[in-house]
Amino acid sequence: MNKHGGYTGESEHIKDHSININPFKLPSEIRNLIYRKIDVLGNYPEVDGKKAAKLLADHIGLESKNMILGNGATELIYLFARTMKFSRALIVEPTFSEYRRAFKLAGTEVCRKYLLNEKYEISIENLISLLYEDNYDVVVICRPNNPTGKGIEIETLKILINKLKERNIWLFLDESFIEFSDSESFLNNGDLDKVFILHSMTKIYGVPGLRLGYGASNEECIEKLYVNKEPWTLNTFALSLLEEIETLEAFGKNTKEQIKSQKNMVLGELVKFDEFEIFETETNFLFGKMKHNTSIEFQKALLEKGYYIRTCEEFFGLDESFFRIAIRTESENKGLIKAIRECMEELKCQN
Hints:
Oligomer: single chain
Largest sheet: 7 strands, mixed
Radius of gyration: 21 Å
Order of helices and strands: EHHEHEHEHEHEEHEHHHEEHEEEH
Number of strands: 13
Shape: globular
Helix content: 25-40%
Strand content: 15-25%
């Protein structure tokens, strides 16, 4: 079983800074829309979600033939892996653990390579050199990456894709956190040949319980995915969200600005501590490294004060010194900083 963020203890009063989702409430228009859909729960939702996919594709500026919806982004990771039947996948690590599991279950040989530079950014130069050392038919990258929060410039990504195409290698590009970033999505570049781009709608809109994600690729790939996709994986509530896509987008943009402001505030406070190093990211979370104590000790100390963060020892290539902190509302963030200050004093005394 893969480990993910999310507090699973018994207390109802824990502020959970381990999950990277929108902490703000959905707009009333969206909430009311969902309430109204209760009356149609006696009917099956659309079997494949194609009508809803067209609404989203039209809004984004894609052809509907290039898009598929999923029961969260995770369904599409597994669907892509088992549909394309790759022989050998290169996963750029450290990153989200479900990629490895999805491709292994599909019978693909999985090669995991730690490819971060000293700034914890993905080293594209080292990645390109690997392409000539072994035979891969798909490369998996998260942009911005989870858990480091670092992105890849569009021009650099284009260079990588050209190198991949020279060797007939697919790129699986997970952009689930791109909406929190100032970086442009690769969706806007129009090149979907041998590229599958994954987006999550549940993180930016704060509805992980509804499960909604989408993928974009060339027409042949999307057709294959539909052939292998189970019917009715998308529920009525999730599909209904896309009826208010403009309202959702406005909500997402407002969220991004609030998160950005809060992240700058939290970062400004956390860099004052000598006990750990904190790294600026493109996402709605921060990435850090303890200098003396472990992140597990740090997590435990914070939990006693009502706050929960994500430790990163289970990410490939990282150890017990690394942690991840999600940005939440202003009051929660200020409370977390206060708790961290108290924890650092206590850990100093213990040492």
